[in-house]
Amino acid sequence: MQANILGTRKEYLPDNAGLRTILYFCGCALRCQWCMHPMPETPEPSLIWDSGKCLFCHLCERDCPTGSLHFEDGVLTYNPRTCGRCLRCQQHCPARGIDFSGSIVTLEEVKKRLTHDLACYHEGGGLMLVGVNHHGDVSFAREILRFCRENGIHTCVNTHGFLSDFEFARLTQNADQVIMDIKHYDPRLHVRLTGVSNRQILSNLDCLIAAGREVAVKISVIPHINDADCDANGFGALLTKHGVRHVYLANFDELDRYKYGCADPVPSRRNLHSAAMTAAQSRMASLRRYGAPDTNISPEKLNRFREILQRYGLRVRHLTIPFDSLDDREEMQL
Q1: pTM of the model
Q2: Measured between alpha carbons, how far is 295 from 180 in angstroms, rounded to an integer?
Q3: What distances in angstroms separate CA 78 from CA 19, 58, 302, one per listed residue?
């Protein structure tokens, strides 16, 4: 069993509270308008081609044993369905202009890493799985979580929850804590901004709460998307209606830069060609035309957002960088 891991991060918690390991998975079915690091819908590795370095020698095209690479109108195209993951193109490229998002790891490799750090986790750290958003990764994540439960490692799953009832139940069965990303409170805007409905996401959230699971909702505050007072009230009304008690409030820009500091899947400042990146640039250009520049959320605005949510009886914490403790019992005890 294997999965495409975008990157990993290890960090020691303050006050000798133990080690936290974060695994970032590839693949996302959502097409958020503001996302500058879009991933393919499936967790298969996607090609990253640097046209600025390329010598256009076509060596990668000729060397590919499965014919998965092909130049069309001066642009290198890639077919992940036929790719055998031999990495011959990457290794033989004289200009080092080919890379792939993420890396394929096996279940045994992850278990070996966790076993090596077992003593540090027992001090109070844990494992966080981020971006398990595709049904193809559920079985892999489920086995990791089962291994952690058997070995006393605290676990947390961070997902947008757009999975079927069955797959979501399988994913979260052995997790100690679940953090669900809620992109928007308005169902019509959710479809418009992400490409999918939030109905299934909220249904999965209801199942967690009904089962008495330790669950929190993460809200990424995004300029001109959901950062107004009316948006905070909209989130507050939605979450209280669904029985949510705990909220993590994140600065979208800061969280985005932190997450993709673990790897360089689709560097936005280099001349790279990928269908996902082209689509993202088009979406962001369209978004800016409606008055949404690349600005950061001020601390004052985040505090204002938090105060409004607290009026609904929600316990709100700012999601600091690096992440707060996974097992902060004083704040998160249900």
Answers
A1: 0.72
A2: 24
A3: 38, 13, 41
Is residue 333 pLDDT above 70, yes or no? no
Per-residue model confidence as pLDDT tens digits over 48-96: 778 888 888 888 888 888 888 888 888 888 887 787 767 788 888 888 8
The distance from CA 51 to its chain's CA centroid, rounded to whole angstroms, is 27
Q: Which residues contact 3 (CB under 8 A, 6 or more apart)?
A: 25, 43, 104, 105, 107, 136, 137, 140, 141
Token output for 291: 């008055």
